[in-house]
# Entry
Amino acid sequence: MTIKLHRGDLPADFEAGASIAIDTETMGLRPARDKLCVVQISTGDGNAHIIQMDRSTYAAPCLKALLADAKVKKLFHFARFDIATLKLHLGVDTQNIYCTKIASRLTRTYTDRHGLKDLVRELLGIELDKQQQSSDWGAHVLTEQQKKYAGQDVLYLHELKARLDQMLEREGRTQIAQACFDFLPTRAALDLLGWPEEDVFAHA
# Structure
């Protein structure tokens, strides 16, 4: 894996292709409180691009244009959080979303383990090191361990999608999965408006 670090934005000549894997690193898990620090991207070529955000402006026109490009599929693991924090901090509505966590929940009903580490271990036979998950992503200089961790979080999403797509088709759940992916921007908007856990469809 080659990791390329970018300050503030993607380069103008970045070529996404048909799909990109995306993840975010923040100062915590509350978007309204915890700032977006890092966005990592992979085109599925075995390499990762790490964007260290300028938290004073979040001026990243190339990244924003890519997120809003409906022709490019965006692969996430737990997209609900990522697209909410991208919306809040970058002011962009991410288009054409696929979430490996939702696909896992719809297919791997034999387990309650749907974290990225568990998914990569079972489907790809690879053990991920998650020690840097809770590190200081707001640091001015990222450590090599942080960059490696961030890169690994997007490195395998294309392979996972291929495996999960097969499982969705096998179980007859491709259409319901797509409906869930299409609903994610609304679910993220509800999170940002203050309904993070309440089921607005519930009777009581």
In short: The two ends are 50 Å apart (CA to CA). The domain at 3-193 is CATH 3.30.420.10 (Nucleotidyltransferase; domain 5). The mean pLDDT is 94. Residues 174-193 form the longest helix (20 residues).
